[in-house]
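Example 5.3 — AN1-type domain-containing protein
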Amino acid sequence: MAGERCDLNKDEAKILKPSSSSSPPPLPSQPSLLAPQEFPAPERPERLQAPVAPISCLLKPEEERRSSPPIKRCLICRKRVGLTCFRCRCGDLFCNLHRYSDAHDCSFDYKAAGREQIAKNNPLIRAAKIIKI
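Solution (predicted structure tokens):
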């Protein structure tokens, strides 16, 4: 760990130095700007890094990966729903009894969604005004 030290000040100094191959910058016309300005490099404390675990330690064994998916349960009564689960527009799973929005106090606004869908499917068409003589 002591050998893995990152000296940020040296890296920043390399970045801040102008390259010699580039053309010289134009001189400013004001005499106060002709004096070279030195900006002190900000001091940064050394950051301690936690030891990095090898990737093989983070991967689960094949037996754990092959385990069955989580059991689907109703959010209200916690009853197992299996294949007959109903996913509401609010994003939760419910059984046959709690699938309706009034049974589980749904947070999804069906009225607003219906209004938007109708407005989208039936745009308002205005005919040109007829000039009467």
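Remark. The longest helix spans residues 110-121.
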